[in-house]
Amino acid sequence: MEPSPDSAARGRSDFLGSLNEAQRRAVELAAAGGDAGPLLVIAGAGSGKTNTLAHLVAQLLLNGADPRRILLLTFSRRAAREMTRRAERIAAAAIGTGAAGAALDWAGTFHGIGARLLRDHAHAIGIDPAFTIHDREDSADLMNLVRHELGFSNLPRRFPMKGTCLAIYSRTVNSEAALEDVLAAAFPWCAEWEEELRSLFAAYVEAKQRQNVLDYDDLLLYWAQMVAEPAIAAEVGGQFDHLLVDEYQDTNSLQASILKAMKPDGCGLTVVGDDAQSIYSFRSATVRNILDFPTAFAQQGRVVTLDRNYRSTQPILAAANAVIGLARERFTKNLWTERTSGERPRLVSVRDEAGQADFVVAKVLESREGGIPLKAQAVLFRASHHSGPLEVELTRRNIPFVKFGGLKFLEAAHIKDVLSILRWAENPRDRVTGFRVLQLLPGIGPANAAKAVDAAGSAGDALKALTAFAPPARAAADWPAFIGLMADLQRAGWPAEIERARRWYEPHLDRLYEDAALRRADILQLEQIAAGYGSREKFLTELTLDPPDATSDEAGVPLRDEDYLILSTIHSAKGQEWTSVFVLNAVDGCIPSDLGTGTTEDLEEERRLLYVAMTRAKDDLHLVMPQRFFTHGQAARGDRHVYAARTRFIPDAILQAFELSAWPRASAAPGSEGARQGPAVDIRERMRAMWR
Fold this sequence. Notes:
This protein has 28 helices and 17 strands. The protein is α/β, with parallel strands linked by helices. The radius of gyration is 28 Å and the shape is globular.
């Protein structure tokens, strides 16, 4: 039954009723269209950014916008899918089921959309649309191959390793900076190799082009170069009436250049983000993009600020506001909430890192007994190694935990093996991939693999060249089955191809890995994922750009308990929230990191890191300050340590926003040093417990 005109009108009038005043204004300004300039929505932590953006997309659909002419750019494919689902659900609820029409055709990550546009316009820019995409490890391997061919691996003085070379190349491309400037700012120990690196990167680009592969950086670089041509920029930009960007503070210079080329006057462009949460400069993101946005286009940008927080209590927000209020440059906003509480965030002094671990474990267990599950609690830290003593204590106390930042699905060797088989079938000129595949065969080493790869890559018919190739004697027995596999991958059809690859690979899996059963489960999962894609090319492209997590990863969810504590770096915690949050090592040298005080820009990003950590907490926030750190490598030779000072981001002027405390608390026997502190470990009790 179709909704009546009256009910549809009521739906439209009530459509934005769930939004607060600032959210509603942002939606109405962005959806108005016309010749208005670009719009920047400054969305503070916990301010309902996702809900606002979903309502904006829904409003565009309700206004009659063609969903095929809306481009939504996010930083994960999962976020794009969720945004699309929410927008369509909101629009359908407003004026009836099905009202939203077709799904958004152009919603995805910068890299995913870039890959699609490059294939669509490949012939106009002189590239082969059948290109394959190297992930970071493949790119590093190709960089290493070129590095070796140029003789840089045999120099009398140590040349930068492949990972460092790739990092320099990536930083140079994404920041649109000169190589010498990147070396001086981020890699000063490599500055002496500037000319050699320039030659290496030129040869690396030529190798990619010969093999018809693109790396992650190329997806943005080629896109930016494509829209640098006015005619193509007009065509690509003209495909979209509305261009929406989420998490704009995380964009790099190259991404900003793309947006400016596609929408030079800014009309139809809306970006959402928070300058106070710009923390990814190590990925070439720059806070300047969002700070300079209002004046970056032909028309002056409009700014709407979302400052009502729906996550944290007011005392937590007051402390976070005080920290970020000391920032050197920012969009002024003060988060507020209707969630009242009498408890301020706590600054807790502990003796050392062992005391810090004891304190966190004690409070975590106390909160658990008080009804807060372990999964609703998180321990955050600036650097991964900061959690070491805590991990030992959690293991000793049999408390399950998950530490974010473990091995990723596509980084697992067995998954890369199977994907390499498919990639090489897709593009026989991909030398790195073929090199990996051929060495899966027993009896084929690097030399013979290189010969076979060169034969396949230079021939018009790769399969014919491989069939004619004479393998070494030790590989002769397995060679016919391999040729059969490569032939089947040309005719089996999708997704039967991945099943065929799995069946060929399984005997090699048993030979190569001791834990073959666990790895086989991952490959079966990969096969299930593949069934959801329409072609091999689409599967390889999208899986490379947005990998899922591994099921057999040791850093994954523990199976022994349905509840577990969250341990995470602050970078990995962005976008998350927990009832109770502990921030480790809130002292100078850790926050800010010793490595993060080189420039004013570095120091300001460290301040934003602390702000991000604090705004993850809903009800309880503890910032823990060890008073001393043992000198590395000296503990066995005595009590060698250095004292630590409270983080400079919490000066005396804002201490009133926090509650100061020490742990362990003093005992009831004042004046007794032993009673106040006691031994750190009661060895005698452990000895007695051994025989109980």
